[in-house]
Amino acid sequence: GEDEIGSYVVERVGPVAAPAMSDAGASASSGSILWTVPEGWTTKPSTGSMRIATFEAGGGGGASGGDGVDGGDGGDGGLEIAVTSIAGEVGGLLANVNRWRGQIGLGSITEQELDQDVETLSECELEAYFVDIQTDEDAEHPLRMLGAIVDDGAGSILFVKTMGDPERVGAQRDAVRSFALSFHRGAPAEQAALDEHPDPHANWQPPAHWVADESAASFVLAAYDIPGEDGACRFTVTSLRGDGGGDLPNVNRWRGQIGLGPLAGLDEQPTVVFETADGSSIIVFDIRSPDAAGGADVVGGAGGGQRILAVILHAMGSTRYFKMTGPAPAVEREHAAFQDAVTSMRE
Question: What CA–CA distance (Å, rounded) separates 308 from 289?
């Protein structure tokens, strides 16, 4: 069947204390969160008052999740995927990953070890992390858990979770990751992009060494992986109806992806400006990680560490995002190609 677009509105019912919590908790989000349900998943009634959505994938037996909160092997049915929403910071990424590790009998890890379990979903229009953890193969009851932790940008955290037999859970890895990537606020970005924007390639052809990523999320208009001797970087173009959640929240989300703290205002973020052939000026947010040469937020130059070039353009009731991410030398190498892509694809 075709992918299903889901839209869910949940009202804030109160604050939640800061310590790491169960996925159960006060649901909290003003406005709408939309997602695309992967092919092969079916929507099921949510058995507990804490959930905002429940899905089932596949079939066969397994141990039940049982508590109406956590996803898991759904008995004689398929694998259950649960979505919950909690107000507040709920302890942060590390605390929640360690909570999940404890649920399948694994010990805690440190902040420096997060990369072994967690992938930052930089293409998601919300701040999102994908988690994949598993017990040892020789464990008495081997388990695998897939999950996502998504900041909805409105003061609450969304949790996606499924767990059970490692082979059955592993078969849904790509689907769970794709599901998390599809989370966004407001009207469906997929339809907005089709209705309000022409083909982004109509006036532009990518450089020969740019490799198109055909597996990118459906709301991504264009995505390219760019190899090179000094590192690989990635270029994406996305479009959202309305203001996309605001420019400052998006810039702060990008800053967080490379280890920088949030800013109080956009005027604090270094930018560069380039002129187009028609005399227009385009502002580029030039974001550099703390380990980049010369310190954080140094504009220009190769240096080290991570770097993001990003352009936000508002037109016709929607917002288009151009973004290049990667090691600072690689991004510097592709700077001119980035500028050409933005200039050609902005209309």
Answer: 9
How long, in residues, is the chain? 347
Is 285 buried (19+), middle (13-18) or exposed (0-12) by CB count in 10 A? buried
Q: What is the per-residue burial (b if ≥16 Cβ within 10 Å, else e) of 169-185?
A: beebeebbbbbbbbbbb
To 10 degrees, the CA torsion angle through 164, 214, 186, 179? 0
Torsion of CA 43, 158, 175, 220, to 10 degrees: 110
Question: How many whole angstroms separate alpha carbon 303 and alpha carbon 331?
Answer: 10
CA 253 to mean position of chain CA atoms: 10
| 220, β-bridge pairs | 238
Q: Which residues pair with 306 in a beta bridge?
A: 327
Work out the widest C-alpha separation in the chain, in whole angstroms: 68
The answer to which of 28-37, 73-82, 336-345 has the lowest mean pLDDT is 28-37
Predicted confidence (pLDDT) per residue in 283-342, tens digit:
999 999 987 654 444 334 444 689 999 999 887 667 889 999 999 999 999 999 999 999
Which residues are 311's β-sheet partners?
322
Cβ-in-10-Å burial (0-12, 13-18, 19+) of 215 comes to exposed
Going by C-alpha positions, the residue among 155, 140, 9, 169 that lies closest to residue 78 is: 169
pTM for this prediction: 0.49
Closest listed residue to residue 292, CA positions, set 306, 281, 280, 278: 306
Q: Which residue has the tokens 């390639």?
A: 201
Rounded alpha-carbon distances, angstroms, from residue 316 to 106, 155, 192, 319: 50, 28, 10, 8
What is the rounded CA–CA span in Å between residue 116 and residue 218?
27
**Local structure of 257: helix, strand or coil:** helix
246-252: long-range contacts at Cβ-Cβ below 8 A with a sequence spacing of 24 or more? 247/312, 249/153, 250/310, 250/312, 250/321, 251/285, 251/287, 251/310
In this structure, are residues 252 and 264 in contact, taking their beta carbons and an 8 Å threshold? Answer: no
Assess whether pLDDT exceeds 50 at residue 257: yes
Query: CB of 64 within 8 A of CB of 72?
Result: yes
